[in-house]
């Protein structure tokens, strides 16, 4: 796990651990880079732990010393089954299933324009507040982690509003897709916490293939046969909502908090697009725009709109989220789903 070179392929490894100032990985070293391109760079600058953990995404974890690194390797192994034909190890917990999450009411602002750290939500929901975040320094707008709910190991995928407002971009899509595939490989149920304003717009994103690379996350969820439970914490807009394990792509259970807004886009953007002619023709465009925004909010993005149309199974009290998730995982843990027989799938590249 503590890689000291590139004598193996990280692309074929579930997790890569690196130690700062000790571990380096690169295809061609600094001397070759300088000879070919003229660029001068150190070994750590080219392929050190922080570079691969935060820039390239090749490494999942970076630590200051080998002792800490090996301790985390042991903890990770305690969450995983011995092989892909066994279930993850069940652990006893003293954390009550029905523990009320009162703190959640303050952690997540009702105002969709205000940010918060979704790690606090994860900590409040999982057993004893313990979780192991993976790829913490790469694509921080999406959080992926291993944790336990009522003793069952689960994989958590969550949008991170405190980083880029939680949008999905190329890196976040690939990060999420790899993690979902990993969890599915080892029979680890998936918990998806949704608060996403959409995919990141931009020329670079489009030219670098956000369509095909964002499709990797969609494919990973659609291909997963493990229990899949999603919770819309606040906003869920457009295609990004669909990709984040919505009912339309096969989530087993989907819940939403009363602050949820499931729509094609936010009220302000939708009003400008859908009602642009009426707004432009009005004597007072600003007043008309405000009227249309209010109408859109009241008619289409009120808390129970999604439940009325079957987009979510239930609108739940945030304080009961842990209890709902624990009972859902326990109910679905024996889920037995099979994909059509074939050699393998054909994921987006």
Output mean pLDDT. 91
Write down the CATH class of the largest domain.
Alpha Beta
Give the helix proportion (percent range): 25-40%
Helix tally?
15
CATH topology (fold) name of the largest domain: 2-enoyl-CoA Hydratase, Chain A, domain 1
Q: How many separate domains make up the residues?
A: 2
- Global outline: globular
Set down the secondary structure blueprint:
Layout: E1 17-19, H1 30-37, H2 43-47, H3 49-56, E2 61-63, H4 66-78, H5 104-107, H6 118-125, E3 131-134, E4 142-149, E5 152-159, H7 170-185, E6 190-196, H8 203-207, H9 210-223, E7 228-237, H10 238-243, E8 253-256, E9 261-263, H11 267-274, H12 276-281, H13 285-300, H14 305-308, E10 314-315, H15 321-332
Parallel strand pairs: 1-2, 5-6, 6-7, 7-8, 7-9, 8-10
Antiparallel strand pairs: 3-4, 4-5
Helix pairs in contact: 7-9, 11-13
Account of the protein in words:
- This protein is of the alpha/beta class and 349 residues long.
- It folds into 2 domains: 10-71, no CATH class; 85-266 and 301-332, 2-enoyl-CoA Hydratase, Chain A, domain 1 (Alpha-Beta Complex), CATH 3.90.226.10.
- Helices cover 38% and strands 15% of the residues.
- It has helices spanning 30-37, 43-47, 49-56, 66-78, 104-107, 118-125, 170-185, 203-207, 210-223, 238-243, 267-274, 276-281, 285-300, 305-308, 321-332, and strands spanning 17-19, 61-63, 131-134, 142-149, 152-159, 190-196, 228-237, 253-256, 261-263, 314-315.
- The strands form 2 sheets. Strands 3, 4, 5, 6, 7, 8, 9 and 10 form an 8-stranded mixed beta sheet that branches.
- Strand 7, helix 10 (238-243) and strand 8 (253-256) form a beta-alpha-beta unit.
- The two termini are 27 Å apart.
- Mean pLDDT is 91; it is low at 1-7.
């Amino acid at each position: 796990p503590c890689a000291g070179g590139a004598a193996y392929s990280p692309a074929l490894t579930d997790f890569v651990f690196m130690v700062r100032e000790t571990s380096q990985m690169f295809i061609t070293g600094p001397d070759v880079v300088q000879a070919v391109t003229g660029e001068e760079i150190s070994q750590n600058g080219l392929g050190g732990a922080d570079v691969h953990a935060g820039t390239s995404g090749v490494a999942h974890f970076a630590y200051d010393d080998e002792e800490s690194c090996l301790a985390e390797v042991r903890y990770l192994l305690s969450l995983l089954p011995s092989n892909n034909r066994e279930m993850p190890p069940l652990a006893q917990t003293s954390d009550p299933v029905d523990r009320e999450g009162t703190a959640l009411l303050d952690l997540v602002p009702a105002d969709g324009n205000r940010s918060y750290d979704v790690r606090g939500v994860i900590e409040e929901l999982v057993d004893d507040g313990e979780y192991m975040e993976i790829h913490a320094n790469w694509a921080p707008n999406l959080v992926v982690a291993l944790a336990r709910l009522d003793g069952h190991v689960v994989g958590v995928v969550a949008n991170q509003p405190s980083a880029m407002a939680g949008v999905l971009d190329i890196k976040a899509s690939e990060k999420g897709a790899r993690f979902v595939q990993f969890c599915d490989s080892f029979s680890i149920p998936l918990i998806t916490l949704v608060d996403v304003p959409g995919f990141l717009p931009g020329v670079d994103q489009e030219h670098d293939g956000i369509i095909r690379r964002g499709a990797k996350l969609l494919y990973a969820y659609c291909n997963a046969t493990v229990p899949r439970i999603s919770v819309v914490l606040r906003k869920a807009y457009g295609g990004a909502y669909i990709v984040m394990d919505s009912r339309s792509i096969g989530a087993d259970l989907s819940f939403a908090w009363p602050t949820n807004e499931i729509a094609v886009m936010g009220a302000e953007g939708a009003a400008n697009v859908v009602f642009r002619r009426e707004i432009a023709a009005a004597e007072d465009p600003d007043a008309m725009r405000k009227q249309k925004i209010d109408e859109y909010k009241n008619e289409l993005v009120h808390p129970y709109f999604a439940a009325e149309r079957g987009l979510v199974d239930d609108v739940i009290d945030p304080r009961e989220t842990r209890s709902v998730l624990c009972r859902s995982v326990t109910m679905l843990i024996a889920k037995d789903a099979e994909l059509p027989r074939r050699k393998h799938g054909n994921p987006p590249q």
